Amino acid sequence: MKNVLIVGTFDTKGHEFQFVKELIEKRGLTTTTVNCGVIGEPLFVPDITSETVAIAGGSSLEELKLKNDRGLGIDVMMAGAAKITKDLYNQGKVAGIISLGGSAGTTIGTYAMRSLPVGVPKIMVSTVASGDTRPYVGEKDITMMYSVVDISGINSISNHILANAANAIAGMASFDIPELKVEKTLLAATMFGVTTPCVTAAREYLEEQGYEVLVFHATGAGGMAMESLIEAGFIKGVFDATTTEWCDEVAGGVFTAGPTRLEAAAKAGIPEVVSVGALDMVNFGAIETVPEKYKNRNLYKHNASVTLMRTTVEECSQMGKIIAGKLNMATGPVALFIPLKGVSAIDVEGAPFYGPMEDAELFEQLRENMNDKVEVIEMDTDINDPTFAIAMAKKLISMIEA
C-alpha cells in the first residue's frame, strides 16, 4: 500500500492536518505524520514526534523551548524533518509528501521536500505560494498551491483547497509511473531566448546523431536543475552554450543560479562544451523594479515582465575570470567556444546590446585565465550562426565517443 508523508506543525494547524490525513486515508493510502511544532501540543498523536524531529535536527525539544528562539526552532526542525524524510524514502516508505503552512511551515515543509529526488510527488499548500516561490521550490518539482485564505480552521474556502490538495497527493502517489527505457545517451543543454537559434540547431543535430537532449532555460532555477541532474548521474554530456546566469550572480539580477554554477560537470568529469551565451545581459523584472543605481544603464525592455541590462566592461572582466576558474576545475574533457561577433541575438552589430569593448574584455580574461586542460576554440561568427552551433555539437560528440 502506498504511503504519504505528512509534515507540518501539528500544534498550530492540527485540525487542518487531520482533515488532510483523513481524506488521504479514505482514498486507500496510508500516512505517516511528522510533527514539527515546537511550543504547543499536537491535536492528534503523530507517528513521529517533534522531539524525534528536534533530535534528528541536532538539538532537543526541551532546549528549543528553553531558548524560545523562533529562528533557531525553524532551523532545527527543517534539518530534522529533511533527515527523517530522506531516511524514510530510502526505506521505501514515501510515495508522496504533503505539507500546509504559512511562511515558517512552508520553509520547513519544502526543505523536507527538497531532500527527495525529482519525480516523488510533492505538494505544499501555502499562504505565500502566490509570491516568489523560488526560495521554497529551488530546483525540485514541488507543486505550490496557494491557500487563498490563511490556514486557520476548516471553512467554506479552505475545505475546497485542502480537499483538492489531499486528493491531488493521493492521486499522484497512487499510480505508478510507466518505466521509460532510455537507450539513448542523455545530454543537457542551456538556452535563453536570445540563444534559441544556436541551441535549437545543436539539439536537432545531436538528436539526429542518436542522442537525447534535455534543454534547460537559463533562469537560475534552470541552471540549478541541470547541475542537480548532473550530480545525480543522469547526464553524460553538457552543451552549456548559455552561461548567462553568471551575469545575475555578479550584478545582482533575478536569474542567478548561485556561485557553484558550472561546477557539477567539472567535478563529474563528463564531457562539456561551454560558451558565453547571453553574458551581455543582467535580468530584472518589470522596468520599475530595476534598482535605482542601475536606472542610467543601458536597459532593454524585453517584455512587460522582464527588463534586461547590458553588462559593463568591468562586469565582463569579472565574469571572464570566474568562468575560466570554473572550467579549470574540470576533471574530464572540456572545450570553450568563443563567438567573436556576438554572444546573443541582441549583441550583434546594430542591435541594442552590441558591445565590442565589453565582449573583447570578456574574451581576453577567458584566454588569460584558462589553463591548458581547456581547449579554446574561437570562431568569427555570432553565437546563433548555425556553423557555430554545429561545431559545438560535433565537438561534444567527439568527446563522448573518445
UniProtKB/TrEMBL annotation:
CDD domains: Tm-1-like (cd15488). Pfam families: UPF0261, UPF0261_C. It comes from the Bacteria. InterPro entries: Tobamovirus_resist_UPF0261, UPF0261, UPF0261_C, UPF0261_N. Signal peptide: none annotated. Coiled coil: none annotated. Residues 2-175, 184-399 form the UPF0261 domain. NCBIfam families: PRK02399.1-2. This is Uncharacterized protein.
